[in-house]
Amino acid sequence: MSRKIQFCLNDRIVSAEVEETEILSDTLRNHFGMIGLKEGCKTGDCGTCTVLLNGNAVRSCLILTCSIEGKNITTIEGLGDARHVHPIQQAFIDAGAVQCGFCIPGMVLTAKALLDRNHYPSEEEIRVALSGNLCRCTGYEKIVKAVLLASQRMYTK
Amino acid sequence: MSTAFYRPTDTLEAISLLGRFGKRAIIVNGGTDIVIEISKGRLTPEAIISISDIQELHEISHQNGYIRIGGSATYYEMMENPLLNHFSGMIEAISQVGSPAIRQVATLAGNICTAAPAPDGCTMAMGLDAVVVLAGPSGERLLPLSQMLLGRGKTAREEHELLTAILLPISKKNCAYLRLARRRAQDIAKVMVGVSLELQDGVCKDAVISLGALNAVPCRAYSLEKLLKNNRIEEGIARVEEIFPQEAKPRPSPFREYKEQVLPTMIGRTLRKAAERWGTNEPENSILP
């Protein structure tokens, strides 16, 4: 059996026929080509599948697609691209926070959810917010600096 | 076999679905544990009932001597709620569950029903003498949390019942929570201790001690509670630190010996932390009306 669902993906209303047991990360990648989100661990630990659900950072591998009917989903594709680079993405570039890049969509979206809620996070608050997003390259220092830089650029007048 | 998906928007609708499907249904309440089981095909229910959209179950309120935490309230909603700031131990416990993205959707009620061995919030809730509200087609019943957890993955919830709320008694106690883990985030702790203490002029009037990550499910350390009662708290804690509680029966694991060695110290530290909250001889939730 499958079920037709409708939701808002990156500011556009979309619909899809999905299995009742399908997880959101599969739907977003396979039905909608949102390959910026990665399927890392598929157990909610690594953070590479992070998306925004009504503005909050969540794990798309732990959410059944049928449960997001009528809700807003933002993926990294909805935040910015090469021609319209989002200030958080620019801060990651400028701080040299990206190495292999696998974790970065999740990092940027988690930072977006944090900065929307808290314009001026402390370094500790950034580290707590990013504590569920694993990076095996950078050692986190430059990622934390990138979020601080984004906060300064976006909210300091 | 095909699976039907339901997203009820009120409690009665959810209960009537449970009445219809019983054991053949799976309740998804946050889903951070159970969705993995479903997506990997280890659970193949006839119906999935997602209850996150039942708004009334997200409410956290103060009524009849209890803080009532709705069955679908997420850890994030609990952390943001001013009523729960009067239960420092509970905030200490739930702010260490998984990671922020997990706390955004995971629920205390869901973790209670999963009945895993090492749940932070559930261990602290037991240390607060929490009561769960189970609602079924024929009405509601209340059950102490300690009687709700029967074994790993096993609870006293009947197949047609929904855990609609967790009640934290507003008592004359101060609470505290400590966990011992290898990492600061995303680690299932090796030892969890939740306590609440009532003190009067340095004498322990009442104590509740709950231990997690040891047995199949969190358990109360009644023997230590008895030992503390009516004794000066510093003397009581010193004695507790010398004793391995008889209720703790750590499961076979590579960490068993380690857990056995650190447990008495961890219990002592948690008790001290709760005792320190008695600086003004007032329980922190006494300012609640």
From TrEMBL, chain A:
Pfam families, A to Z: Fer2, Fer2_2
Which keywords does this chain's UniProt record carry?
Answer: 2Fe-2S, Iron, Iron-sulfur, Metal-binding, Oxidoreductase
Family matches, as InterPro entries:
2Fe-2S-bd, 2Fe-2S-bd_dom_sf, 2Fe-2S_ferredoxin-like_sf, 2Fe-2S_ferredoxin-type, 2Fe2S_fd_BS, Beta-grasp_dom_sf, Diverse_Oxidoreductases
Occurrences of domain 2Fe-2S ferredoxin-type (ranges) = 3-79
Q: State if Iron is listed as a keyword.
A: yes
Q: Where are the transmembrane segments?
A: none
From which domain of life does this come?
Answer: Bacteria
PROSITE patterns referenced in this protein's UniProt entry, alphabetically: 2FE2S_FER_1 (PS00197), 2FE2S_FER_2 (PS51085)
Xref: PANTHER family? OXIDOREDUCTASE WITH IRON-SULFUR SUBUNIT
In Swiss-Prot or TrEMBL terms, this protein is called: (2Fe-2S)-binding protein
* Organism field: Yanshouia hominis
From TrEMBL, chain B:
Domain FAD-binding PCMH-type: where? 1-173
- Keywords assigned by UniProt, alphabetized: Flavoprotein, Oxidoreductase
By its UniProt entry, which Gene3D superfamilies does this protein fall under?
3.30.465.10, CO dehydrogenase flavoprotein, C-terminal domain, Uridine Diphospho-n-acetylenolpyruvylglucosamine Reductase, domain 2
For this protein, the record's SMART domains field holds: CO_deh_flav_C (SM01092)
- The name on file for this protein is FAD binding domain-containing protein
What lineage, starting at the top, does this entry show? Bacteria, Bacillati, Bacillota, Clostridia, Eubacteriales
